[in-house]
Specification:
By secondary structure, the protein is α/β, with parallel strands linked by helices. The chain has helices spanning 10-15, 26-31, 45-58, 60-71, 75-88, 108-119, 130-143, and strands spanning 7-8, 20-22, 38-39, 98-102, 123-127. A five-stranded parallel β-sheet has the order 1-5-4-2-3. Helix 3 runs antiparallel to helix 4 (60-71).
């Protein structure tokens, strides 16, 4: 039976168990990412541009269909890669096989990948607001004035 993927706030997401999978394109990941997150792109840089252009020119429905055409052949390999990531990090024997998944805004890419992984027996959680919420959290955290004591 299909189970909905829980969406976690940034504080919950950062402290939840399991590896973090960043499903944004390689270019987005290279520009910046959550420390320790693993690049797990749904689209290549070119594919992301194609889907974005299609969305702007033809609309959401056509962009979704293009996205499905582009990702369909990759899905089996993505499941195998997720299993390998858990194995490499010592989570392979964990009963829930938990993975944390995020994209840019916490939208279609992360929810699609999380749903597919859940269907394949993984437990997944997505980041509410995606990487943008992480950036806001970093800015808020850095804006907090803290007393610094220098020993020397």
């Amino acid at each position: 039976m299909f189970q909905a993927t829980p969406q976690l706030s940034i504080d919950e997401f950062l402290t939840a168990p399991g590896p973090i999978l960043d499903v944004r394109s390689p270019g987005e990941y290279e520009k910046s990412h959550i420390p320790g997150a693993i690049s797990f792109p749904l689209f290549s840089n070119d594919e992301r541009a194609q889907v974005g252009t299609c969305y702007k020119q033809a609309g959401r429905e056509q962009a979704i269909e293009l996205g499905l055409d582009l990702t369909g052949p990759k899905l089996g390999e993505m499941v195998r890669k997720a299993k390998a990531i858990l194995q490499e990090r010592g989570y392979a024997n964990a009963p829930d096989k938990t993975l944390r998944v995020h994209c840019w805004r916490g939208g279609m890419r992360s929810s699609s990948v999380a749903s597919m992984l859940t269907l394949c027996g993984f437990q997944t959680a997505t980041l509410t607001g995606g990487y943008k919420s992480f950036r806001r959290w970093v800015r808020r955290t850095l804006a907090i004035v803290k007393k610094i004591i220098l020993l020397g």
